[in-house]
Amino acid sequence: GQKGFTLIELMIVVAIIGILAAIAIPNFMTYQAKSKQSEAKGNLAGIYTSEVAYFGDNNTYNDNFGAIGFVVASTGSQRYSYNINSQTLQGTSFTTCSTFSGGGVSAGLTGAPPSATGFTAAAAGNIDGDTTCDLWVINDIKGMLNPVNDVTS
Prior knowledge:
Strand order of the largest sheet: 2-1-3-4-5
Distance between the termini: 57 Å
Strand content: 15-25%
Order of helices and strands: HHEEEEE
Shape: rod-shaped
Number of helices: 2
């Protein structure tokens, strides 16, 4: 009457746990990366709100972050750099993308300054450490796009 588990039973349990972990960890990493994208979406919505408020006062849009009253919250490290056409607001750290080089973004920013007719703002960042940068773009009619998705690449 000895009670306990055999070595084979323990190895079967360890194998099952290993299989479950192999399935769950990649899915967890994807969900974690998607949650990091909320920083870009939230800050682009803030840029949109600031631009609309500036337009209400001045009847034109502006690409100067200080003029429209937008600042990136300094809680923790920023994963994205923000751009309104030709003006770039660099995140405090972590951003290693060169997407904004040349004054514009290949996915829709032309480098032309904002005007009374509209603006385009973008956020670029590397959220998972690979060579692909995540890119989000918003315009004056609040159309938000994710032309380069770092999570699915």
